Fold this protein.
Amino acid sequence: MSVQVKICGITREIDALAAANAGADAIGLIFWSGSKRRVSLEKAADICAALPPLVTVTALMVDPTASEVEAVLEALPINLIQWHGKEGPEFCEQWRMPYVKALPSSACGELESVMANYPSARGFLLDAVANGQFGGTGHPFDWDVIPAARSRPIILAGGLNPANVAEAVIKVRPCAVDVSSGVESAPGIKQSDKIKQFIRAAREAAEAETK
């Protein structure tokens, strides 16, 4: 068993480097106006420029217009799109970009049928939704609602932190874990020690399951 790690809601170059240096596979840049962690295209460009070449840059968008998507893709070296709203399959797939589709935990009861609607998705991110916020809430959901048998890769998010990520990896066995508020001192301000602890805990749990 192996697990990848994404540090989402990056707003500063120093935090992007901390994530990369700690071994993160990906970072997330948020372009949704409703997020406290939203970054401008200019700031996102500075963050991308600071990263090592093999770290995946993920653009998180929530029900954007076509012009908003085009602006992000034209301005930045995006590797992956994370659709976090109610985007339909046609909208997600028209850009011919690798993508993951975020789903609320309430979709777990019909997970296979929902996933079948997005045939080109690289994976599906399961997240908690609270107070109208799409991720970054700091609230976990009941992992027991996630089917043990799944035909597609699952990324687990929602309330993860250094203290509970090992349990999450062992119980859910996701292909990846995604954290934002769980490694912060304030919205958008990451703590390098928490990033290191989170990644170490996730990887050690995955390795233990392999033995």
User: Anything to note?
Assistant: The longest strand covers residues 56-61.
